[in-house]
Amino acid sequence: MAKTDSAKYDRQLRLWGEEGQSLLEGSKICLLNATATGSETLKNLVLPGVGFFAIVDDKTVDAADFNNFFVTEDSVGKKRGEVTRALLNELNDLVSSEFVDKNPVDVITKEPDFFKRFTLVIANMVPEDALLKLSQICWSNNTPLVVIRSYGLVGYLRIATPEHTIVEGKPDNPPDDLRLAEAFPELLKYAQNINLEKMDSTEHSHVPFVTLLLQYMEKWKAEHGGKFPDTYAEKKAFKDMVIRGSKKTDEENFNEAFKQPHKSWTPTKIPSNTSNVLNHPNATNLTPTSGKFWLLAAAVKEFVAKEGAGLLPLMGTIPDMHATTDGYITLQRLYQEKAATDVAAVTNHLHAILSKLGLPNTHISAEDIKLFCKNSIFLNVINYRTLVEEHDPKHAKTSFIASQLADADSNLVWYVVLRGVDRFYKQHARFPGSVDDQVAGDAEGLKKAVAELLSEWGINHTVDEKYIKEIVRYGNAELHSIASFMGGVASQEVLKLITHQFSPMDNTFLYNGLKSTSITAIL
Prior knowledge:
Elements (H helix, E strand, L loop, with lengths): L9 H16 L2 E5 L3 H11 L5 E5 L23 H10 L6 E5 L3 H7 L9 E5 L3 H14 L3 E7 L2 E7 L3 E3 L18 H8 L8 H4 L4 H15 L8 H13 L7 H8 L2 H4 L6 H7 L13 H14 L19 H32 L9 H9 L5 E3 L4 H4 L7 H8 L7 H16 L10 H19 L7 H10 L5 H20 L8 E5 L4 E5 L2
Parallel strand pairs: 1-2, 1-4, 2-3, 4-5
Antiparallel strand pairs: 5-6, 6-9, 7-8, 9-10
Helix pairs in contact: 2-21, 6-8, 8-10, 9-10, 13-14, 14-15, 18-19, 19-20
């Protein structure tokens, strides 16, 4: 693969780094149907530099496609997929592409192996039966499937993949990993060797709050039988001890310590997301074909049980704090050196695991090990439901759907109505409201389809006719504003799935353009 163009992709490299960009540039995306929604989704993947995309579409451009900004009046009569592919490629000459002039349904039913070469598949405007078949194909290939749809003022997105692993969760407010309650020897020795009494006022006001908390906690424990503050009164007394140590009321470092005393007594715990990963069967039942994520998880689990003494590898980073440059750098180096020691221990466990499986040590790079250890607190795995299971009445989330339908303002009603639309299409080979002189009859037909669906689910509830009439009024039309919005949402989820950074939506997203509201649900 060619070297990343760091100047071209500078802003996104700051967001997901070289590792994320490398995964993006190495990805291959397949889009079924170059509608406005599909084109907008692909546009947002071409711009940041997806490696390759293929468009499968046998439609020719007509007036109904003018809601798509990637076709013009001059495109009428030309292949929609080819016109869209050419214009998308103009956005980024580093991206390669292919146009497949075939009906997506035919490719799904007759050429299932076609999808094996793709990193991810985006399905848009695919009939229900073919969509379920496609979901089975992608599931067996372990290829993420993203289903998108814009239907009038309603948007729909569904992610389906056996499992999605996350290394860099990147939460909005990541926690500090200071380990003050379990201070490692080098850190504790450093803190104890600092003599606050002999410092002048300038030096005294620049001792990092981490060092202050460690010193005062050691003093507290010496006076209280080696115990941490436990009761409210004890914790208040400890805070008072810290603030009394300041020489002036405006010493920022002491104020920082006074505001964060809990960091010195709160034990470090493995978060539930990481614990779920370490205890996952895939981290125990390893084989030579196990993914790198699970091999690394197994190595970290060994570290936790041995060198870590119940703790994860240290992140090795510290937050900003009031300190001299030299003092901050010294503290930072201590954390970095401890993190490096932990990485070395995890590496030894990993190499032992690889040896047992007959795999070379080079199977996983040193950079991958370091990245995994640094982000071990953010590890996560999402297991999705299959579309086939969702569409089986026996496995439908009927109690949840019923509870949502009981709420007059719930956006989940649009999910039910869209499922009714799919049933109507299967029965009539057209969408409700797509023929002008049959609108009234289609409303009754859609109402019946929705009632059948609810009956199969065993839900004793009716959908307000206003929703039926609204959907029929759309006649399967795509509005570009909704298509653009859904394209933005879908592409964002695709980027998460490809880079394994941040946390993608779990299952289904519905957007109500009438009220500009949305819902995410496991269906």
